[in-house]
Each structure stands twice: as structure tokens, then as C-alpha cells.
Fold this sequence. Notes:
Rossmann fold, about 10% strand, three-stranded mixed sheet, 6PGD_dom2, Mannitol 2-dehydrogenase, N-(1-d-carboxylethyl)-l-norvaline Dehydrogenase, domain 2, oxidoreductase, alpha/beta, globular
Amino acid sequence: MPLPLSEAALPRLDAAIARPGYDRAALKPGILHVGIGNFHRAHMAWYLDRLFEVGRDHDWAILGAGVRPGDALMRERLEAQDWLTTLVELDPNGLSARILGSMTGFVPVDPAATVAAMSDPAIRIVSLTITEGGYYLDAGGSFDAAHPDMTHDAARPDAPRSVFGMILKALSARRQAGTPPFTVMSCDNLPENGHVCASTVTGLARRSDPAFADWIHENVAFPNSMVDCITPATGERERALVQDRFGIHDAAPVVCEPFRQWVLEDNFPQGRPALEEVGAEFVSDVSRHELMKLRILNGGHAAIAYPSALLGHHFVHDAMADPQIAAWLKTLEQVEIIPTLQPIPNVSYDDYLALIVSRFSNPEIGDTIPRLCLDGSNRQPKFILPTLRDRLSAGALIDGLALELAFWCRYCEGRAEDGTPIPPNDDNADILRTHAVAARDNPAAFLRNRAVFGDLGENPRLTEAFSRQLTRLHQEGVRAVLSAYAGAPSAA
């Protein structure tokens, strides 16, 4: 029978399963992390686990926190297994499992408890994995002061309901107590994520206390970072794998690819763990590495997501085995995405693209097209539209990027090419569908969604290219437009 995961069960696990060799009882939390999801545990928690394993920095353990109702369920599951996580690396050359022990607790999902934990002088970093859409940005990428959560927290700073309101209350408490401010570290896939996080924190503070906002600007560090590790959602397939292959009953296991990258701006006034000892890279300027990843990898995911969904592909590796999808990805990257990037010393964009193609094609990951399609109204403005703006500013070709938007528009209608319904997976699905249906008669109607496109939807070059691609997509179908752009033969 599978063993329920716990500290007591560790000695009884199969000898091939790696587990903490350090004394977890001696760990002390130095990082409070908000958003204990799969990516955090496959990434930051893995790096810290490895760092503790080599005998370093045991005062930098993770204390979990959450602000959403679903976080309470994650807390309950992890508490029952002593905050341990089973992490399976999906290497096509052989799967491996490791029990991560770098987390020491999880504060109750309650604003007062979270603020109290953030106010503890032992916490020197507050880190965030709250999704790309969690930073209260408008269509132009600026702080959205009108969002109801921000309006609430600005009016009631002593009773916050957003993580940023909680950060402000904790920083204020530390300031009054004479405790140095913690560093705020975003671990989300956002261009200049540290700057974005700083903009939201100071923007909210300015609504109620401009002088406090100025103090934050002068005294609180918000380092930029680039994070990378493909981490599928956990479902029955993944739970069964952990149970059947490794003999562990884990209520919240994580599976991921055998690749990670973490590039951080070295800006931690209150200190930091020596993550460079276990493969992280600290640099003075993250921006070019960050843009490379956001445009080639995240933009690549967006590019394959919608045509693959329309063609009925479920798994990403199956989509990549479709020669038309693979050719579409490579052509779009080489012709329109990579040319927007500035050179990075000792980095080959062609080699990086080849690595991305290999990672997307890994059949062990089991990553799904529905996951890639999720939350397009937040992801497209982060991963596709900035590239499109750069191409338009340069007067360069945009046929492929316009086609990517056309695929998304067609997807938002809610049916695949064979008529199969596509379940909505975007908080703005109803609005997107209304614009997408209207675009059948007037393609520009989709671009008039200012919450997504802002003023970009009024650009005449984009309107022309998008209208042309969407019309052809409606008339001829997905495979015909893929062939016209990338030239690959049909897989059908």
C-alpha cells in the first residue's frame, strides 16, 4: 500500500527516492512566500531544498501564505504531511522523485495572520507567485487604482484584503517598530516583475498615504527575476504516477520537467540565501534574460495553444508532433519574435529556441493545451502584445503575430474546428466570446476590446493584418492558414 507522506514515513520510502538529509527541525523561516502552488514548489522550494542539502543557510526556510480561498485547502493538505512535497522530475530518460523539506509552515489564510507573519523581523524576504493577472494592471500595463480590491484597500489600509494591502500594513508595522523592511520578490512571469510589483505596492500606498509611498520607494527593494520550469497542473494522472510508481500517497504532489532557470537581480538589502551555490544566477540586469524567456518560451506557449486547441490536440507533446504546429512555432519565433530581442553575451537565441522546442516536445511532462490556453486575456497582453508593439514600431512584418491573435479570437468563439465545445477558461470568457462572434462579420470588433488591447486595437496596420488573417481562417480553416504561413505539410 502507498505510504501517506509525512516526516515519520521518510525512512520507510523506497531507497531510490531522494529525501532531506538535513535536520528539518533546525530550519528557521526567512522567506514568507505567498502562493504555494505547483510552480513555486517545483522552483523556489526545490532550489532551497538543494541549498539546505549542501549545508547552507538553514535560516532561510519557507513559510507559506495565501490570500485566496483555495489556499486554505492547500494549507490543509500540506499540514497533514508535515509541509512536505513529493516532486517528480519528468525526464524522458528516466523519472525520479524527491521529497522537498524546505517549507516549515503555512500561516492561516487570514489577513491578520499574514500581516503578523510578514511583520516578524526573521522574515527578510516576502516572495510572490500570484499569477500574471494578480498585480492589478490595466490594459496599458499600469497600476489599476480603480480595481475594487485596490479601492477597498486604499480606503481601509488597516483591513486589507489583497496581498499588496497586507504588504503595506506589514511594512508600516515594521517601520514603526524600527525593523528593517523586507525585500519583496516577485516570482511571476511578468516583464520587469520587480518593477511591476513595486508599481502596484507604491501605487496602492499613494492612494492613502503619499509620504509612506515615498518611503517605500526609497527603502524597499523589489528585485527583478526570471523564472523558468514547465510545471503541469496536478490531476489524477499525476497523483496516480506518484502513488503507483513511487509508492507515496501525497495529497498535493508536483511534477515538472528536468530543467530550471532562475536569474535574479542581486538587490537584497536584508540578505539572501546563497542560491548561486545550487544553480541560480545573480546579475545586475535581468531584463534581457527575462525578455528572452517571456517572448520565446511564454510567447511560444501562447502561439501553439490556440491552433492546437482548434485542431483538437490535448497534450502539448502531441501538438509538437504535428508538423504544422512545430513549423508554425519555429517560423513565428525566427521571423517575428527573436528579431525583437537584443543580444545577450554568450547566449545563442537559436540554441535557446531549440531547447524550447525540445522541452515542449517532452512526452513525459503531460502538459496540456487547455493549461496553455488558460487566462488568455491576461497572458496575451504580457507575452504577445509587447512583441507586436515592437514590430509595429519598427515597421516590420506582423503577419504571424496577427495570425496568433486570429487563432485566439477563433478559440474564444468556444468551439473547435470539428464543432466540439471548448469550455470557458478565462474570467473574461463572456466578453471575449461576444467580441469573437462579432468579429465574424467585422474582424476589427475583436480588437476593440480595450481592456485587452488598449490603443493597440486602433492601429491600422494591425487591423488590416488581423482582419486578413481572421477572414482567411474562417474561410479556409486552421491547417490552410498554418500552411500558408509556415509551409509545413498537413499532418492529416
